[in-house]
Amino acid sequence: MEMISKNLLKDNKGYLTLIDFFSLYYSRVNTKFTKQLKVEDVETGSLFNILRSYFKVIRDFDNPVLCFDYRTGVKEYNPRLQTYEKYKYLRRQKRSEEYKKAYDWLKIFLSIVPYVGLYYDGYEGDDIIFSVVIDYQLNVNNIKNKFPYGVIILTVDSDLWYLKKFKNVYVIDLKGYEFIDLARIKKKYDILNPEGIMWLKLFHGDTSDNIPSAVIGNKSLFSKKIKSLIDNNQLPNFIDVIKDCQSNNYYDCIKVITLSEIESILKEYNLLDYINFEQLKINYELILFRYININDVKLTYRSGNEKRYVEVCNEYKFRQVPDFKQYKDLVDVKLSKIINKLGLKFKIGDKNDGLRLF
After folding, report:
1. Are 12 and 149 in contact (CB under 8 A)?
2. pLDDT for 52 beyond 80
């Protein structure tokens, strides 16, 4: 596993840094780091954990942007959410206490710190991250001129490792603060091609998101055959970017593999009998990233709340409290720059929008 390059941390002003917001909670919680926190109660140390992770990111990376899951009763016009409720949300309901705890800490966090965030109603943070990466490949609104070195993604979600397939995209695991390289992908998925991550999740599902496997029969044999096809580059790209696309509609510049194409591939390699195609259709909806045009995504931002910060620190009896003014000045300077770079093209949401996340 490749540790973060000192040169990258020293001079990364040409990068756009996208932070998977929910990962801030899971980046340090349930690790030995939690037990080392000098707070009265390890449980309330979760909030301090989130603050520490955020300060570290702000210190080390320029142009930091939080990417939010955001939904406010939109399922009547977003069929994907209806499918989600039967799978991903159902699992989260079963773990409601854990998730509620996470939401509580994250909401307190957002009421304290200055931040810039991106969201789109009815979509998840990884959809936002995916969309910005696609826009970067297409150089929408000359985004490459603003961030010439590339895009850095900070996350604990292995789904986003897939984006390492794109040029000038760097994925960093917030848990270990390490680059995701091919060795890490090989260790987790037993493949060498990031493209294969989407294929494996499509067929085998994702237990962490309550997505069932679509494979029937001998799963081990099927998995072995699919991994062989992946590593020999015999499967087409799950999502392609058409670099020479002349259309003004950016959706026309993205080629996504269709279910009929997947069916043809399975037939070609005599694998169709291993698949429950009805479940495959559902997995296709759940696994596939959704693209949102960069001009439709909303930008939200908030200045730090010093009074609330002091109240929270007193309430949870933090012994090691970063100086508010010191970190606020650091964050405000960086965030004002990112607003200037992004704000002209993004729709500006209401400042409170970022708090209505769940």
Report:
1. yes
2. no
